[in-house]
Design goal:
Helix content is about 5%, strand content about 55%. By secondary structure, the chain is mainly β. The strands form 2 sheets. It has a 40-stranded antiparallel sheet that branches. Strands 41-42 form a two-stranded antiparallel ribbon.
Length: about 575
Amino acid sequence: MVKIQIALNLLRIFLFFLGMTLIGHAQEEKTSPNDTTQSKQINIVYGANFTKNEEQFPGASIFSKDDKQVQFEHQGADLWCDIAIYYQKENRLRALGNVRLQQGDSIEMTSGKINYDGETRLAKAFEDVLLETDQQSGKMTLRTDTLYFDREKQESYYNSSGTIIDSTNTLTSEIGRYFMELDKYQFLDSVHIDNPQYILDSQQLDYYTTSKNAYMYGPSTITGDAYKIYCERGFYDTKVESGYGIKNTRIDYNNRIIEGDSVYFNKASEFASATNNITVTDTVNNGIIRAHYAEVFKAKDSVFATKRAVSISLVEQDSLYMHGDTLMITGKPENRVLRAFKNAKFYKTDLSGKCDSIHTSEKTGITQLIRNPVLWNGDNQMTGDSIHLISNLETEKLDSLKVLENAFIISLDSISMTGYNQAKGKDLFGKFVENELKYIDLVKNTEVIYYMYNDDEELIGIDKTICSKINIVMANNDVEDLSFFIEPDGDIFPETELPVESRKLKGFIWRGDERIVSKEDIFDDDDNNIVLPIIRGIENPIDIDAEEAERSGNSNDPVNKIPPTNDNASKPILRPKLKKVTSSPVQ
């Protein structure tokens, strides 16, 4: 019995050394003296216990651990396991039990099983796979059930759900690929980033572990403590919570919603900006700003907008459109102030106006038309040094009107279509009833010229009177009743007895050709033919690596707000191309 045991041990030793000899011969055959390339053959470092099982594993050498694990080496990578089934001829092995694959000092993978092919350098790991990297960007771990590790391309990938943890984020997805040389992950299907400061969900996402930058493709949502971002193509710096979207982008920020072709956001500076086809919605006061460039400052609770900028608000179920070369909204919701600067205009049904600038206060309900103002109520033109429209703070309906200093009201005589009905005074005070100007009082040094007709629309005469006060009652934006107070002095002149030059009061200026009769009239030709920058990355195929290179040369890009990288600083700055577009009417 002892002799038999000794014989079996000698046989195992013989077979082990035979295997080693065969490996040596195979290496000699594969590597000639003239071949300087590294051998593709998998090398046995420590075989421990050796056996064969031709019935179950034909052609394989089986190694199992003793007090040490089995160890193999292949082109800079070491593999340890409890049991190895090694197919020398095919140059592949199957590692089982407490498997560990290490490549240099930076990459280590552990799992329950690994299949490794020495020809293709492809490893397939199963059962509680953990990939750990210690790169320049810091430590990172990847957990999944099955992981493919392509050492030839230096890539690893999974398609059965994975979790990645680095110093900043925890990322999960159904499908993922890790490019080791680029320190880049590419995630597909149900991508989720969990950070103490925010949560990011995306259909597809590229993530660079060095910069902690994320590039989003398809529907993506980022939710922070005071903001929510949605886009279908965008960039996000996960370290500082800053980024931009360039397709169907929307940011819910404080009490505003910002939408546009290109939207930029920075949490630290509490700032957001948008370019092209912008809508900024005030969710508290139900107001809207539309423009082609806008900036939002959270700390100041303010909005700056330009390029065909228009404010739209609801007044008595009627939209009020207000335009200026520049719009500014400041203040908290209950004390919000809207300013329209330079070439300011506004329009609502039966009421429109223009001036140099407009100032509207939510707290007082007063809208001031400043410098050379003109107001049209129906066919009635009103002018003065300044004009105030006052809203009822409770009902938010138009309540009254003030025209201060040099008040003048004119309307074209609707029957003759040649003469003008006129009234003037120092000040004018009007009262609205159900959104219609109903009562008008002109006070101090008042004068009137009025064309009077009978029921058959035959001209009776032209009333020309001066007095201290005039009261006008309106109906359907036309004069229904006219009353004079305190020693009126005047007469009704037959048309033939009142010269044409006497039919206009001093200071008469008719501005009918400037009248705003639709919401489109608040814009001029310059507004309707703005040169807009082309937003990159939508019309052309997306190449993420090309975008990384391009971004380094765009540090001065004020439109798309693409942050520069520190490398390639010597590259020329790429300017956005411009195109001329005709804007569509305000909706």
